[in-house]
Specification:
There is one protein chain. The chain has about 230 residues and is mainly alpha-helical. It has a domain of about 110 residues: 3-Layer(aba) Sandwich (Glutaredoxin). The chain has 8 helices and 5 strands, in the order ααααβαββαβααβ. The radius of gyration is 58 Å and the shape is rod-shaped.
Length: about 230
């Protein structure tokens, strides 16, 4: 009986060893199969699209800065949103530079206003040119032979900033386009030039005519001068 029991124990032990061996071989085969299948599938996996490093560089840096602390989710989100907004701003096309505002053009010369302003300075105005011999002669006559109060206002058109325009307007307004051109009183009509005033002087009518044209605003006296003047 003892021999039979020993044989059973030996047989049972052998059976257990065989089962363990079979299970070990089966597990190894299964592991090899799984590994082979996994190796076959790796080349066929599609890589998930990744965000370009440059696009997420700022956001990743921010996450790294806050990764070591707790309860920073709100701060991280806020910082990332700021960076995203900054990128949007940087990517917005720059607005074209606005052209500088043009300076307003210079005020256009108004000969009518200028003439009124000149006439307001004296009841008698002599429009002249500094180099004109006829202008020189009438000025010598009026200032040397007569005392006129208030004194005539002399405008040298060649020295006036807008002399050419003013002379053209004088021709239109007074009827005389040459110099000298004398205006007296409230009228804009020309009272004559060098030749006309020389005739008034020679005939002795100059004082009466100036006082009449001046309508009481001029006082004229003849100076004691040589008879040949």
């Amino acid at each position: 009986m003892a021999g039979v029991r020993q044989l059973k124990i030996i047989g049972l032990t052998a059976l257990v060893i065989c089962l363990v061996f079979i299970l070990h071989r089966t597990g190894a085969s299964a592991a090899s199969l799984v590994h082979a299948q996994a190796s076959d599938q790796i080349p066929h996996k599609q890589k998930s699209p990744t965000t370009p490093p440059a696009a997420n560089a700022n956001a990743q840096n921010i996450v790294n800065d806050f990764s070591g602390s707790n309860n920073n989710d709100d701060k991280v989100d806020e910082a990332i949103n700021r960076e995203i907004e900054k990128d949007r701003t940087n990517n917005t096309p720059a607005k074209p530079k606005e052209e500088p505002e043009k300076k307003p053009s210079e005020v256009k010369f108004d000969p009518a206003a200028e003439l009124i302003n000149i006439r307001s300075l004296s009841p008698m105005t002599i429009f002249s040119k500094s180099y004109c011999p006829y202008s020189k002669r009438i000025k010598e006559l009026l200032f040397n032979s007569y005392t006129i109060t208030p004194p005539p206002n002399v405008v040298e058109l060649d020295k006036h900033e807008h002399g050419t325009e003013l002379q053209a307007y004088l021709k239109e307004k007074s009827g005389r386009g040459t110099v000298p051109n004398v205006l007296v009183g409230s009228s804009f009509d020309s009272r004559g030039g060098s030749d006309e005033f020389q005739q008034y002087h020679t005939s002795g009518e100059l004082i009466s005519m100036l006082e009449e044209w001046g309508a009481g605003r001029l006082q004229v006296k003849k100076n004691n001068t040589p008879s040949n003047v």
